[in-house]
Design goal:
- It contains 13 helices and 12 strands.
- By secondary structure, it is an alpha/beta fold.
């Protein structure tokens, strides 16, 4: 069993030995009977430490990313915080993308910097700039590819080499691509991060996060901190993400089909200044299967026009988040990336971000055409 679509449906999800149920049960339980002191059944004692439903999800995610250990969290930021406090200490330094997700930037700038973690944002598509940013105390190179919301692409294999030479670890946020389109661990990354809220869950009905570690020792360290810090995924949330993962491959194919058509349409318009979609990027072609369901674009008439477009769509819903079956539209500067305003990571005011869903693409095109008019 090695093909992605098969792993997504079966990895970590054997039929229940007692009932034959083909879907993992929701173990909505806090504690477990022990057969004598320390006599644990299957290693379960308390659901913060481990829960069978969460174990099924963690095993599946590890298989999909090709890692040794998967860990599921209550949110993507809970996963990020646990990871950084595991592999960094006060006085260390991180290199992060110059256009990172606003929540990630806020975590570094408003939380972890006060804890003592220094960081430098750089354009990670410029490898010389990344090398120049590395210091003697750099312990992590944090990569997001494609980035949110500018869709810039970083060379994962090259960044892995830079991190290795510096004695640092490479972390890749694979949320936008999903493991169906990109496998960072195969390219040399040490850890993959996901907001499972997005494409892995896929239905805008769950909040979650995940880490997948390449080597078992790091996986064990992360598991210890996951338990010690406590930001774990609940059983029902784990079940919802696992349900979403089963259809990830077919959904991503449709997301990509629709996004490619929309990017082509936007590029044909005179009132669109720039379209951000990585289908023409050489690095993306090298390391991605296809280019995802996210499209961003800048309009010629400035921020007010961008805001007007966001308010006019009927099929695209004005909302934050991404990766669900329904199409969403948002203004990053006023919404998801407002926390980066006034910082080096501030995004252009004329930028609109689309999370392209799996509706009929002709309906999506007609909706955008009317909103742009």
């Amino acid at each position: 069993m090695s093909e992605f679509e098969t792993l997504a449906i079966h990895a970590g999800q054997e039929p229940d030995p007692l009932t034959g149920a083909v879907v993992p049960a929701i173990y909505q339980v806090s504690t477990y009977k022990q057969d004598g002191v320390g006599g644990l059944r299957g290693g379960y004692e308390y659901s913060r430490s481990a829960n069978p439903t969460r174990t099924a999800l963690e095993s599946c995610l590890a298989a999909l990313e090709g890692g040794s250990r998967g860990l599921a969290f209550a949110s993507g930021l809970a996963a990020e915080d646990t990871l950084l406090r595991t592999i960094c200490k006060p006085g260390d330094h991180a290199v992060i993308p110059g256009d990172a997700y606003g929540g990630t930037y806020r975590l570094f700038a408003k939380v972890l910097e006060r804890w003592g973690l220094e960081f430098t944002p750089v354009a990670q598509q410029d490898l010389a700039e990344v090398r120049a940013a590395v210091r003697d105390n750099t312990t992590v190179v944090w990569c997001e590819t494609p980035t949110n919301p500018l869709l810039n692409v970083a060379d994962i294999a090259a960044l892995a080499g830079i991190a290795r030479d510096a004695g640092a670890r490479l972390v890749v946020d694979n949320t936008f691509a999903s493991p169906y389109l990109q496998r960072p661990l195969d390219l040399g990354a040490d850890v993959v991060v996901h907001s499972t809220t997005k494409y892995l869950g896929g239905h805008s009905d769950v909040i979650g996060g995940a880490l997948v570690a390449a080597d078992n020792q790091l996986g064990e360290e992360l598991a210890y901190h996951q338990n010690a810090m406590g930001g774990v995924a609940a059983a029902f949330d784990s079940w919802l993400v696992l349900r979403g993962v089963k259809t990830l491959a077919v959904r991503m194919d449709r997301h990509c089909d629709n996004a490619e058509r929309i990017a082509e349409f936007l590029r044909s318009r005179d009132d669109v200044l720039e379209v951000r979609y990585p289908d023409a990027d050489d690095v993306a072609r090298k390391q991605m299967k296809r280019y995802g369901g996210m499209v961003s674009f800048r309009v010629r008439d400035g921020e007010q026009k961008a805001l007007d477009i966001c308010g006019r769509t009927k099929v695209f819903t004005l909302a934050e988040s991404l990766g669900g079956v329904e199409s969403l539209i948002e203004h990053p500067g006023r919404m998801t990336h407002a926390s980066a305003a006034g910082s080096p990571l501030e995004v252009p005011g004329d930028l609109v971000r689309l999370s392209v869903g799996i509706e009929n693409v002709d309906d999506l095109l007609a909706d955008l055409r009317a909103a742009l008019a």
